[in-house]
Queue: 2 jobs
Job 1
Amino acid sequence: MDRKLTQRGEERRGQLMAYATQRFAQNGFHPTSVAEITEGLGVGKGVFYWYFDSKEELLRAILADAQLDLRRRQRAAVSGAASPSDGIEAGLRASMEWSIEHPDYFRLFQFAATDDRFNGGLRKGEQVAVNDAAKVLSAAMDAGEIPDGDATLLSHALLGVNTHLVQQVHRGVLDATDDVIDAAVSFCLHGLLGRPSPR
Amino acid sequence: MDRKLTQRGEERRGQLMAYATQRFAQNGFHPTSVAEITEGLGVGKGVFYWYFDSKEELLRAILADAQLDLRRRQRAAVSGAASPSDGIEAGLRASMEWSIEHPDYFRLFQFAATDDRFNGGLRKGEQVAVNDAAKVLSAAMDAGEIPDGDATLLSHALLGVNTHLVQQVHRGVLDATDDVIDAAVSFCLHGLLGRPSPR
Amino acid sequence: MDRKLTQRGEERRGQLMAYATQRFAQNGFHPTSVAEITEGLGVGKGVFYWYFDSKEELLRAILADAQLDLRRRQRAAVSGAASPSDGIEAGLRASMEWSIEHPDYFRLFQFAATDDRFNGGLRKGEQVAVNDAAKVLSAAMDAGEIPDGDATLLSHALLGVNTHLVQQVHRGVLDATDDVIDAAVSFCLHGLLGRPSPR
Amino acid sequence: MDRKLTQRGEERRGQLMAYATQRFAQNGFHPTSVAEITEGLGVGKGVFYWYFDSKEELLRAILADAQLDLRRRQRAAVSGAASPSDGIEAGLRASMEWSIEHPDYFRLFQFAATDDRFNGGLRKGEQVAVNDAAKVLSAAMDAGEIPDGDATLLSHALLGVNTHLVQQVHRGVLDATDDVIDAAVSFCLHGLLGRPSPR
DNA sequence: AATGAATGAGCTTTCATTCAT
DNA sequence: CATGAATGAAAGCTCATTCAT
């Protein structure tokens, strides 16, 4: 679907994506029908297929957009960091903040992770982020700042903490205060530091 | 569906659940049809509805079974622990081991978490586990073993690490060696210890 | 679709094929919807897909059945012939009679010939019939009964006469009397004989 | 749609018809969408409906054009013939040559013959041609050149041979050499001559 | 003349569920 | 208990056609 869109077309496409994001996040992808989306926007069903090849493609487009936005945020945060460990912390904070600000995207990520049809695109993105983090961790290990360990594994551990805590926030189990982020960051950094070097 | 089942009936029910677990995990819940399940087992569709009220109920039954099994394993592990912190470690290890051993159940948990129709049952179970863990953490805090903090939040952090690393193992990103579990445990324990409390 | 069908199922399948044959022949394949077929029989839409994988498959099944029937008729006619030329005449007559008796099947053959999706199956059948005829013609040539010529081409010429005249009968341009068949046979035989070999 | 078209307009209309002819012949009329045609030409959908009232009308226009062209060719051929039987042969040859040169048109004729919505126009044209031929045949019968018979029926027999052999050429079953036409003509003429009148 | 967007009826197909046997 | 057949709402998607610009 490489249609050249007019200004108006671009807007419609955006509307469809925004509304679908909402419905998919609230109702689930499979239970949300294309008709529900177009009716919700008060347009004909054909409109949908003018802009997207299929319902699947729509979700993929949404996910790609969201990932792009998240990555931009992370990059911006990390690039302003003074030291490697600062970078890790900044990246962590940026991820969590973004995820808390975008509950719908977060939910779609979670769903997409359970479905191989969408998984692919996400995993590549995740891998990039994890690799970035792993590189920083490796550097820190080489510099003796943190004990040696499997940098990839540790990066995933960070991601796990991050993700799960955000999920609890969205579920209302935890409050969306800065404390959650602070606690997560603290937990992660100490987890990385490992056995406090004897003094 | 509180039918009293004969011996043979129990077996059939078990077959249905086992096969469905497989299909749901591999194909997804929505994309897997009831017909696929009954045909896969070579039985008529009536059989399915003799044992389950609906496809939804089937998944709920599978999830309940799985949770029960997981909890049993955790309880057994924790109950044999000498100290609170030993209990935390044992519980963590037990969770990860079970999750690695049961990829299909793990996938279904992940999926169920994204769908409010199934979420409910799981969350109660998760909450119980988290509360158990939080209690131990609180005790450890009171005993000065670990610094004060939000016990619930920390429990979720543990769960996040656990879950995410297992996922990577299932995805083949990480190898299913004991090292993963060791690293996770170490990461978690140090995360909990946080800044070594001044003495 | 290799379902084992009960007696009742076999009947339903037959009903669907018979009714669809009628509708496809009268209305055309594309313009006839599956709904039209099931509604015409007063059954649910699902019934259709219980017996056939798709509308396409249904047509293919109809065509295969029809071809089988036609071939049986031809074989029976030819097998009873005393001489080669008798066989040609008998086959020709059998073809035309069958085609005149089965206007719906005839129409579907005509349509299928215009659509590559259905063409395949038919052409194989046609080729078999043509080859059979060509063999007889070759024999007749060798025996000096008819002048030498391209046996395949001549077989197709016979088929062309046969087919087109039947079409005119169905259209009401020609009357469905034995005269048409007689005339066709005469035309064909003389066409084959060609310039009476000088003696 | 009796729009007066500018020079450029005529060209566009011609482009649309040419491209559609191709697509209809290759893909089939029903399976080819208006969008496919306009996109194939890189023009907007509005263009199509500027020149044609509907997809149906487009096909009718194509068929009418094709018929006109064929008839012109036949008329030219027949008009130059010295004798009635020469005329028959010339007409036959002209038909076959034209049909072999225009596979797309030929295919569309075949398709149109199976659909009552388009059949009408064609049949009138066919009838004219058949009547022309029948008149010549009648004359030949009266003159004792060929045995008496149903002139209309025989004309259709000629048409059948002609049509079917051309089809085989397009299908690659027969080679598009002059031999095919020669053989067809010979077959037809001898078919008409029937039992060589005893002298 | 031409475009891209929009319409919406209608299509093929799926599928959870029910039911006669 | 079990089966195969049936149901029919609803899904995803297509497409001839219209229309504002």
Job 2
Amino acid sequence: MRMRISRNYSNVMQGHPQTRQRNLLLGLIREANGHIDAKELFRRAASKDKSISTATVYRSLNLFRELGLIDEKRLGQAHCYYEIKRSPQHQHLACSRCGKVIDFDCPLSEMVDKVKSEYGFIVTKAEVYLEGYCSECAEEKGKE
Amino acid sequence: MRMRISRNYSNVMQGHPQTRQRNLLLGLIREANGHIDAKELFRRAASKDKSISTATVYRSLNLFRELGLIDEKRLGQAHCYYEIKRSPQHQHLACSRCGKVIDFDCPLSEMVDKVKSEYGFIVTKAEVYLEGYCSECAEEKGKE
DNA sequence: TTAAGTGCAAAGGCTTTGCAGCATA
DNA sequence: TATGCTGCAAAGCCTTTGCACTTAA
């Protein structure tokens, strides 16, 4: 049985077959607009395709990462979140009270230059992770 | 049977009993000088005290973290590393070729101020993780 | 003495893998 | 049609937990 493919990702699959499952997953990651973890991705995928398995979710995430389609970020204490690659400069604020994750633009070129001149270290990937309280929670916390 | 305690950490245990196991583990983390993971910590601990269990290692790491004695960092793709808390400003460079982890001093006050004024976000913890090639590996890579 | 920690073993999550069947190109 | 993906179920890690015993203070 052939399924209608709702969105075409063949251009980015670099020779790897485009499948119903991969299209679904990539679409969901894109829709999620960052910060979706494997478990939630499986939950959403399963709600659209009951037969999908966690194995496929993990295999697809690994493939997407290898192909450079997504970024894997470790936020908070225990989770990996995945998102479609966008600006290399965009980083994360994680609220430790409500769990919200906020993107922020963060030019790191100064830091990259500094470690190159001081340590001879060539940066290929940069992650900044700031934890604390978002504006709402900072306010709530003040009232407590 | 009472063991001789080789180093006294009672001042930092904040009311929690000082045990042979906790002393051993804290000492090993200190000796490791940063960047030791739970598995390696257990391995080293077991070589000095055959009866120690992984449960104690994990329980102790959690306690030390709660007491603010150690920092937990997520480096590279999959590992958590623990280190004795030192300067809040010190961050990590991870070489993706040889796996070496280099500490570097990194003042983040500008960034902290910026997210506060732009997002109302109060930072309580900051992590910067730069991945790339250390000076030796950058050189080796050039020759390849 | 007693509250707290420890070891053991089992259980819990999350992630990976082997295999037979199925779909994509 | 042939390579490669998928689902299923089992296995593998790492980490946590329940329980009875032991220990620090």
